[in-house]
Design goal:
Radius of gyration of chain B: 28 Å
Largest sheet of chain A: 6 strands, mixed
Low-confidence stretches of chain B: none
Number of strands of chain A: 11
Oligomer: heterodimer
Mean pLDDT of chain A: 80
Distance between the termini of chain A: 44 Å
Largest sheet of chain B: 5 strands, mixed
Helix content of chain A: 25-40%
Number of domains of chain A: 3
Strand order of the largest sheet of chain B: 6-7-8-9-10
Order of helices and strands of chain A: HHEHEEHEHEEHEEHHEHEHEH
Number of helices of chain B: 22
CATH architecture of the largest domain in chain A: 3-Layer(aba) Sandwich
């Protein structure tokens, strides 16, 4: 019977998920989700799924109450009736039903909706760490790890063989030699670590809205990649004419003004990765967001050379996302995709908030 | 799962039932099951019935109950179902005094189920019947897939308030009324001829053909159904073009809705009756001194009138007590009505002492509407501070509208009539002779919610398959709503006019 209610609950949840998924675009592009952790619950408004029925408009209906008060006196703030308990009203907002989903579940939905493949970590087999597994039994050990069952089995065995066991008075008394303790063995298990490095152009041409887009997109990229790795590091680099590493908050809030030299960011990224995350042991993801406006003077060529020679040979993925702006020329994307071709280079254009989902699919659709 | 109550609860049950019967209550055997809170939430999600058909709304109910229980917002105190034997559930974690209270309360409900006239036609084997329904629907799910069956169930549930609560649950449809045929009009026009020539001027074959044609014409013009049909579900079950399993599912949903209808129509009476009896049983027979505080706390919790909301338990118990007192003191009849001396009315006591007799009689022959109509008095309304409220559009909040007896009574009766559901009839099932369905809302001063009406109309269309129309009133003007399967449209006029 428990089984039965579980089935009905499952159906209900599937239906809710379906509703959320239908409107995923709107839900995940809400800025306030950013910064939540995986298990944290967010409430998501979905249209009511109760079957519609012919009903009276409750506002017009009114009702009967009980208590003190003069005619014309409002029913107190917390006492506004839900009239009849159906909780229905005239406002569109009242048709909504709040459901709570964790960020993890939302990420799963995102993956399902976009048809994202699981990421296959690079060289996972090669990278190993030792992990203790409690699979052994020893004769010595701390009392806290004593195996009750094995100890008594050993004692019983001893007593039977010694002839001191009387089935009519079944008493088993372990002695020192009977003690058995659980113990561990080191098992090599593959681990996969990842580092994600975000780079953003903060030159004068990037507006707040564009930064918000970058913020939302990188949040979901982060969530998706994170679920495929045991541990994940994130690093942030901002650049205008020069690049510097910043913390997460700064990354999303700074507004610099000035020219743009993309190669500076790439150089810094290469330095960070080569110094701290040897690519043989790490899965490296790099994402660069810009409005596509780069300085002239051969900087584009410097970028392409860096990518070709340094980055692309060891990166799992290099994603370039171009946030469209009115002021930027947007030339970098075209130049990049025509000059550098590689399996692990993905270019994506993000015209506005609605473009975020598509862009996430571009980046993560390859399962790298 | 069936957990037999532990011995001390069995003894308690015997004691409670002994006292209840001594008071004159009479019920079928009551079977209690003791459940932990997860189980009780599950049973509650299924409305108290151990076997229901699979549907997501039970899962939704379960999730909400579990969540609100986990947050400490609600506890289910009593759950009792109208059946023979009567089933009731006890929460294992409750205190002994709580179990006592629940059992006393359940005795009241069980007596009411057995004796109130509204329940006379209900299926007393509903637990088994619902298990049958469940088995049938499960079989349909296996054959036709969960999406199809669930989707159709949703359509049926969307109109499950359109049953005729007065009709016994498994009523057969009324036989079609014989059409009042008018032989003169049916006789085709004859050419004048002398008797011996008649046979040749008006040949019999041609006359016969003409008669048949006219008859067919008349049939077409007749409305179908001849009278507006109150039970929309029954009408659809019989006349909509459905597949066999769909017809059965619609019948199942209708049967269950009709079975629950009397409970909706006697909410105030039934809860009041059970509360009246648990209060008397507890305070006069069952309470131990050490349990008084806990009992009083629980009782007060149940009776507390949430401000601005009417509590059927509170209204019910007070009305029962009022009726009892009036018939004890003879405060009824012409003499009492004629007396307008306030002091004399206060002192009025003829020593009639027929209160007990009266309330047992009332519990048999009334439902909420007739109960309130007959026994709500101006004194009662004043003493209990009843008022009506309405929505003040300017201030955008609910305000107290009136404390006048007539206003309160009218509003209460309106809320309880058809248990607050709009009354909608099948007016015409062959509209424009195109098999289109016209539903008519009987406007009683409160308009429908148009957004929901639109969606519901669309669901009706999915059952009827042909275009459907709804005639209602909005802003005091007639409004015709249409749905033809793809698009909605509305005009401020009657359906007939539109045609």
């Amino acid at each position: 019977m428990v089984n039965r209610i579980e089935q009905d609950r499952k159906r209900f949840e599937d239906i809710i998920r379906g509703r959320v998924k239908k409107d995923l675009q709107r839900h995940i592009t809400r800025g306030e989700l950013i910064g939540k952790r995986g298990r944290e619950l967010v409430s998501i408004p979905v249209p009511s799924i109760d079957p519609p029925r012919f009903r009276h408009g409750t506002r017009e209906q009114g009702g009967v109450g009980q208590g003190p008060g003069d005619v014309g006196q409002p029913l107190g703030g917390g006492q506004q009736p839900g009239a009849g308990g159906t909780g229905a009203g005239d406002d569109a907002a009242e048709h909504l039903r709040e459901v709570e989903l964790s960020i993890d579940e939302l990420t799963t939905l995102l993956g399902e909706e976009l048809g994202l493949p699981r990421i296959e970590p690079k060289g996972a087999r090669a990278i190993q760490a030792l992990r203790g597994r409690y699979t052994e039994i020893r004769r010595v050990g701390p009392e806290s790890l004593r195996s009750f069952r094995r100890t008594y089995r050993a004692a019983l065995k001893r007593q039977v063989s010694a002839g001191t066991y009387d089935p009519r008075r079944p008493m088993v008394v372990p002695v020192r030699e009977d003690m058995r303790y659980r113990s561990w063995r080191d098992v090599p298990t593959p681990v996969a670590n990842a580092v994600v490095l975000y780079m953003m152009d903060v030159s004068g041409s990037m507006s707040d809205e564009q930064k918000e887009i970058v913020r939302i997109e990188s949040f979901w990229l982060d969530q998706w990649i994170r679920r495929h790795y045991n541990s994940m590091a994130t690093r942030y680099v901002i650049h205008d004419a020069a690049a510097r590493e910043v913390d997460r908050d700064t990354f999303f809030t700074t507004r610099e003004a000035g020219g743009t030299k993309i190669s500076s960011a790439y150089e810094l990224a290469v330095q960070i990765v080569e110094r701290e995350y040897p690519p043989d042991d790490w899965n490296v993801y790099l994402f660069h967001f810009s409005d596509g406006d780069n300085w002239g003077g051969g900087d584009n060529e410097r970028c392409f050379r860096l990518l070709r020679e340094k980055v692309l040979p060891w990166a799992n993925l290099f994603g370039y996302g171009q946030v469209e702006s009115r002021t930027g020329s947007g030339a970098f994307l075209g130049a990049l995709s025509s000059h550098v071709q590689a399996e692990n280079l993905v270019c994506s254009r993000i015209p506005d908030r609605d473009g975020i989902l598509g862009s996430i699919r571009d980046f993560l659709g390859r399962g790298r | 799962m069936a957990h037999e109550p532990p011995r001390e609860l069995q003894a308690l049950q015997m004691a409670v039932e002994h006292h209840a019967r001594a008071f004159g209550l009479d019920f079928f055997d009551i079977v209690y099951e003791v459940l932990d809170w997860e189980e009780i939430n599950e049973v509650a999600a299924y409305g108290g019935y151990p076997a229901r058909y699979p549907h997501w709304r039970f899962g939704m109910e379960y999730q909400e109950l579990s969540r609100s229980y986990a947050y400490g917002l609600s506890k289910i105190y009593e759950m009792v179902i109208n059946n023979d034997p009567t089933y009731a559930y006890l929460l294992a974690a409750n205190h002994f005094v709580d179990q006592k209270l629940v059992m006393a309360h359940v005795s009241g409900h069980a007596d009411f189920f057995k004796h109130n006239y509204m329940f006379a036609g209900t299926n007393r084997r509903m637990v088994d019947e619902m298990a049958n329904h469940a088995a049938r629907i499960r079989r349909y799910v296996e054959t036709h897939g969960v999406e199809a069956v669930e989707g159709f169930l949703d359509l049926c549930l969307s109109i499950d308030n359109l049953v005729d609560p007065n009709a016994p649950p498994s009523r057969r449809p009324e036989p079609r009324e014989p059409v009042d045929e008018d032989p003169v009009a049916e006789e085709p026009a004859k050419l004048r001829a002398k008797g011996y020539m008649d046979e040749f001027v008006n040949p019999r074959a041609a006359m016969e053909a003409s008669r048949r044609r006219r008859k067919a014409e008349r049939k077409k013009e007749e409305r179908f159904p001849a009278q507006p049909q109150r039970d929309v579900m029954l009408f659809l079950q019989e006349h909509a073009p459905l597949r066999n399993w769909e017809r059965d599912v619609l019948g199942i949903v209708r049967e269950e809705a009709a079975y629950f209808a009397p409970q909706g129509r006697t909410k105030v009476m039934n809860e009041g009756w059970a509360s009246y009896w648990h209060s008397r049983l507890m305070t006069e027979r069952l309470l131990e001194g050490s349990e008084v505080i806990d009992y009083a706390d629980n009782h007060a919790g149940v009776m507390a009138p949430a401000p601005g909301r009417f509590n059927p338990y509170k209204l019910g118990i007070e009305l029962w007590r009022d009726v009892e007192e009036r018939w004890n003191k003879g405060r009824h009849g012409p003499d009492w009505e004629a007396c307008d001396d306030y002091a004399a009315r206060e002192r009025w006591d003829t020593g009639e002492m027929r209160g007990q007799e009266k309330i047992f009689e009332v519990r048999r022959h009334y439902n909420d509407v007739t109960f309130i109509d007959a026994f709500l008095t101006p004194e009662f309304v004043r003493r209990h501070g009843l008022f009506t409220y309405g929505y003040d559009r300017a201030a955008r909040q609910y305000v107290i509208a009136d404390r006048d007896f007539h206003a309160v009574k009218e509003k209460l009766l309106f809320m309880l009539t058809n248990f607050g559901q709009p009354r909608i009839d099948v007016a015409d099932a062959n509209f424009l002779n195109r098999g289109e369905l016209v539903l008519a809302h009987r406007y009683e001063g409160v308009p429908l919610r148009l957004d929901m009406a639109r969606e519901t109309l669309a669901n009706v269309q999915r059952i009827w398959k042909r275009p459907v129309h709804l005639e209602t009133t909005y802003d005091d003007r007639p409004l015709a709503m249409h749905f033809d399967g793809t698009s909605h449209s509305e005009e401020a006029s009657t359906v007939e006019r539109v045609a």
